[in-house]
Amino acid sequence: MKLLCPLSAFLLIGTSLISSAHARELVLLHFGDSNTITSYLPESRRVNSALQLLLAQHYPKQPVRCVNAGQDGDYIRRFLDEGRYRKVQAANPRMDIAFIRYGQNDMKHYKPDEFEAHLKEFVGVLRRDYPGVHIFLETGIYIDGRHWYDQTQDASRYANDKYQKYWAVTRKVAAELNLPLIDQWRRWDVETRAGLWDLRIRNGTHADDPAHPQHFYNAHANSTGVILYALEICRHLLHYFPRQLPAAGQPAADPHKIPVPPPAAAGMQQVKPVDDALKKTSGAL
């Protein structure tokens, strides 16, 4: 029987470990409310499906599974206290990257300082239950005041003020904990000002009446808005991890040292290819 020399054995074991690391499927979870799960859209048009498609393009050698753990009407306190978090944990015993986008329903139940405490608590829970998990915080919905409650007047400031109080908390927590921030509100703001404003579904009562003042009165992303969410997430991942997505426990992103540049408007030039690809692959997603 021929024995391997120590160096040969070391190289063989090292090669095997590298191959296993590359083959291991990474698990990415999206946490949030109705603007995360978008249950009114087909599963193939949700943020996890769009992101999975983008990651397959940018990280073709890495198996990735994107899981949408959002729920209509959800907020952090309910998610943690009413048992659903434990169900999500049981269904996903391993998690490498987490995206947290809460606030839109939290504001209906809690003040900004309470939301801050809950958000920090949730981050702590994930760190406890998933050691080494990479956590990204996201801000949420942006409202184009020219297409909101009353189309006859620009309600931009009023429409966004209540949301910004909570998105400011998300930004604050991200800075304090040195967590990467994906400022979805900012991306939508930039795109809207550049002309891509049609990012939300229509008011169900007046969806078929474009002339009605409240035709646009709905604060939920449409399929274009969802693709923008995924594009902005992907932009941040590529910034921090240009070559390979990290598994839990690998070096984390450091936004203090490597800040992400502000978003630039890309318009339908970026959205349409993703939209077309999702239509072609909808049966497989």
Question: How would you characterize the overall build of this protein?
Answer:
- The protein has 285 residues and is an alpha/beta fold.
- It has one domain (25-281): 3-Layer(aba) Sandwich (Rossmann fold), CATH 3.40.50.1110.
- It has eleven helices and five strands; from the N terminus they run αβααβααβααβαβααα.
- The chain has helices at 6-23, 34-37, 47-58, 76-81, 84-91, 106-109, 112-129, 156-177, 184-193, 223-240, 268-281, and strands at residues 26-32, 64-68, 97-101, 134-138, 181-182.
- Strands 2-1-3-4-5 form a five-stranded parallel beta sheet, with helices on both faces.
- α8 links the parallel β4 (134-138) and β5 (181-182).
- The radius of gyration is 21 Å and the shape is globular.
- The model is unreliable at 6-21 (pLDDT under 50).
Task: Describe the structure using short key phrases.
5-stranded parallel β-sheet, Rossmann fold, 5 strands, 47% helix, alpha/beta, 285 residues, 11 helices, globular
Q: In a few lines, what is going on in this structure?
A:
By secondary structure, the chain is of the alpha/beta class. The chain has eleven helices and five strands. Helices cover 47% and strands 8% of the residues.
